[in-house]
Design goal:
The protein has 781 residues and is α+β, with helices and mostly antiparallel strands. Helix content is 28%, strand content 23%. It has 20 helices and 28 strands. The protein has a seven-stranded mixed β-sheet with strand order 3-5-1-12-9-10-11, with helices on both faces. A hairpin with a 6-residue loop joins strand 26 and strand 27. The longest helix has 28 residues. It starts with 14 loop residues before the first helix and ends with a helix.
């Protein structure tokens, strides 16, 4: 390992431009003649559109166009789709209601886009938007998924009777019921996973430009997967033929899943650019993001966990109602199904599992993947149950988990997944040691003398990353493959460009991907460039989500590097008159092993392009492409321990320490991995203590600004104690597993387990705000 190669703590190359104000985001893009857009959005959660009058708006200063859904439909623009088909247990397909990019006859949530106003400045567009007159007939709304499926609830889509999208199941119901019936002990809970707003640092934005002379469209957008955006907008939304549409995702300030999807705004800006004849830019303000970005989580589950007389789990039964909001977003259907129920075995050897999931429409913002996407919900169910069961059984939470750990691999769970490698005892031991778990009783007694309540909680999580293989997800309903592509170009002077279908929006790809190349060829990391996010530059790729960039994106790069290395060795062997098998590449040189014969790397690269002396029949150049489709998911796992202290007079919870012991397989850059874990824990703590999206009964979002939606700040968090163990993944050439979502998956149950331990209660809802904790304390007196 070199100081810049695999395993090195290399500072992020991209940070220089970010911290000096040199980042290039969509809002920084300027196209000659560009105008600014504002969307008129529904103020009602559920209403019929009776009339739209745009005459006053059209006459206002600077306005160049005011467009409605009827015009959009007349031009043949299609509805937004959900790209993962789920069938109910009776075999019927999911009930996907129509979602027009601009509402035509009906609005279904506060924030539904109805009209686009385009003007010379954003201020002029905003003023004109206020002049658009829309007559609504307000309808009754429903925001609670458990109420939306009751008889007599407001009907949101005609296609979905009682607002039920699908009623799906996984596992063996009979075996699970039998295990519960014969159990020595059964723990039962109702578990709620609260709704969240992603809140990426950069709000969503889109810039659409139609070039009439070339009949060509360009869309700059805040996307995690620009190639999929181009595919969907051309194949399903009829915006433009794929060969006439370029999608560029430049620097993107965070995504967390919320920028995977294609939203109405990208579609409408492209369409409006052609319709009006000018480039059209839209940038959301923060309240607009709260209203219209896809939200996350929002599950209500009834759970039963069965144990035998030796405290071994014999069965797990889960019934979940998942709120998907007013429309089905692009991947919304897979989140409460194949990304959730398939992980309900956790780290435990559970012989019988059955999950039933009902997905439901409500008059709220659409719900889709948010950091972890189904895995946090599964972990929260499982780890809250394990902690509660340990208390009911009167045993140590750590030892109950240890007794039920999977210890032999590969392990086939009852819910599809085959775990390939892991050592869950190692993570548990590391976490307990770092947390001084054995010394907690003493610390609790000392806190009590100070009038404080102290608690400790743990969470043992597992997740599935690198979503794959394509044939498997295709059989489960996915509309796309989940492979990845890479192209490695060695230039004539020896510098190297890597073009990847993965997309970086905070993960550090420009550094970690370059480390792979440095490790392979021994070239300086500054001589390696990473190119991504532009469909005209990079061949088709599937983007970044689900912690797939390492396991899938890097593996594609490794395959392309293998081909480049093989060709470079053939050229060098020819030039050095040596056997190809004796050629080695290291420290920027191509050498004949065991001799002093060598060539500098750049000379081999130059020779490939001058082509004066190549092996017979070899094509000039040194450039290779590869596609990589994984053979299995990867399975990062770990143990988190949280210790809290609560002031009973105010309900304020302070996290005294937080320990994270993770197994991510082989690690490319430990510093970047630690940063990913820190950020994930911060978001998980935010969910547990502070964050929650709340609607009133009329469908108005009560938490549509930072005045009402509390984000975690530095003062809310301790210095995290993080460590890693390593059981390499056998399913990819790098042995990596993925780290981007772990912190957000494992931390919420650890925090809530600690709080309930401190308070001596079974449950407390998230977010466990000071007011909620204070009320819980008072209720127990």
């Amino acid at each position: 390992m070199g100081i810049e190669g695999v395993g090195a703590r290399v500072a992020r190359k991209e940070d220089k431009r970010f911290i000096t104000g040199g980042g290039r985001y969509v809002d920084d893009m300027v196209v000659p003649g560009m105008k600014h857009a504002v969307f008129v959005r529904s103020p009602h959660a559920h209403a019929q559109i009776k009339k739209i009058d745009v005459k006053k708006a059209e006459a206002m200063p600077g306005v160049v166009g005011v467009l409605t859904g009827k015009e959009l439909k007349a031009d043949g623009i299609g509805n937004l789709i959900c790209g993962w088909m789920i069938h109910s247990k009776d075999g019927t397909p999911m009930k996907m209601g129509a979602w027009s990019p601009l509402a035509v006859d009906k609005v279904r949530y506060v924030g539904d886009a109805v009209v686009i106003v385009v003007a010379d400045t954003k201020g002029q567009a905003r003023d004109a938007a206020e002049a658009v007159e829309i007559t609504y007939k307000e309808l009754k709304a429903v925001v609670d998924a458990t109420k939306a499926i009751q008889p007599g609830a407001p009907q949101i889509h005609a296609e979905a009777e009682n607002n039920l999208i699908f009623d799906w199941e996984l596992g063996d119901a009979k075996a699970t019921d039998a295990a519960i019936k014969s159990a020595a002990h059964v723990t039962r809970m109702k578990i709620v996973n609260n709704r969240l707003v992603p809140n990426a640092m950069e709000p969503r934005a889109a810039l659409g430009h139609y070039d009439k002379a070339e009949n060509h469209y360009t869309c700059w957008t805040t996307s995690q997967n620009p190639h999929v955006a181009r595919l969907v907008m051309s194949a399903f939304y009829n915006v433009a033929p794929e060969n006439k549409l370029r999608v560029i995702a430049p620097d993107v300030g965070g995504g967390f899943g919320s920028k995977i999807y294609i939203y109405p705004e990208e579609i409408v800006c492209l369409w409006a650019s052609k319709k009006i004849g000018v480039p059209v830019k839209w940038v959301a303000d923060r309240t607009e993001s709260f209203l219209s970005d896809a939200h996350g989580r929002d599950h209500v589950s009834t759970v039963e966990m069965a144990f035998d007389k030796d405290n071994r789990i014999t069965g797990l039964k889960v019934d979940t109602i998942a709120n998907l909001g007013a429309y089905m977003s692009l991947f919304s259907s897979c989140v409460p199904t194949y990304l959730y129920a398939t992980l309900l075995s956790g780290q435990y050897d559970i012989p019988a599992i059955h999950a039933n999931v009902r997905a439901v429409y409500t008059n709220t913002a659409p719900v889709d993947a948010y950091r972890g996407a189904g895995r946090p919900e599964a972990t929260y169910v499982l780890e809250r149950m394990m902690e509660t069961a340990a208390r009911e059984l009167g045993v140590s939470p750590a030892e109950l988990r240890r007794r039920n750990f999977i210890t032999s691999f590969p392990h086939q769970t009852p819910v599809i997944m085959t775990y390939d490698a892991g050592d869950y005892n190692a993570s548990l031991d590391a976490a307990m040691k770092a947390a001084d778990y054995a010394g907690f009783a003493r610390r609790k007694a000392e806190a009590a003398k100070q009038g404080k309540l102290r608690g400790i909680g743990m969470s043992c999580y597992i997740e599935a990353c690198g979503l794959a293989p394509s044939s498997a997800v295709g059989s489960l309903g996915a509309g796309v493959g989940l492979w990845e592509s890479a192209e490695v170009r060695v230039n004539a002077v020896g510098t190297i460009e890597v073009l990847t279908g993965s997309h970086s929006h905070g993960q550090g790809h420009e550094t970690t991907f370059a480390q792979l190349v440095t490790q392979r060829f021994g070239v300086p990391i500054d001589s390696v460039s990473i190119v991504h996010g532009d469909t005209d530059k990079v061949q088709m790729g599937m983007g970044t989500y689900g912690s797939r960039s390492g396991a899938v994106g890097m593996s594609a790069i490794v395959k392309a590097l293998d081909k480049v290395e093989a060709k470079a060795k053939k050229i060098a062997a020819h030039l050095l008159e040596a056997d190809e098998g004796d050629i080695v590449i290291e420290n920027g040189e191509v050498k004949v092993a065991g001799t002093d014969k060598s060539l500098p790397w750049f000379q081999v690269a130059l020779a490939s392009y001058t082509a004066h002396n190549l092996p017979a029949g070899m094509e000039p150049g040194l450039k290779e492409t590869a596609f990589y489709d994984p053979s299995n998911f990867t399975f990062p796992a770990g143990c988190y321990i949280c210790e809290v202290e609560i002031d009973p007079e105010t309900g304020l919870t302070e996290i005294i320490q937080f320990v994270a012991a993770d197994d991510f397989g082989n690690i490319i850059n430990p510093m970047i991995v630690e940063g990913q874990v820190h950020g994930g824990i911060a978001q998980g703590v935010g969910q547990a203590l502070l964050e929650g999206a709340h609607y009133d009964r009329n469908g108005q979002l009560l938490t549509a600004s930072y005045m009402d939606y509390t984000m975690p700040r530095a003062g809310d968090l301790p210095s995290f104690k993080v460590s890693t163990s390593n059981t390499p993944c056998p399913g990819n050439p790098l042995g990596v597993k993925g780290c981007g979502e772990a912190g957000a998956i494992g931390s919420p149950p650890a925090v809530i387990n600690a709080i309930t331990d401190a308070l001596g209660v079974v449950d407390i809802p998230m977010p466990a705000s000071p007011a909620t904790v204070w009320a819980t304390i008072r209720a127990t007196k």
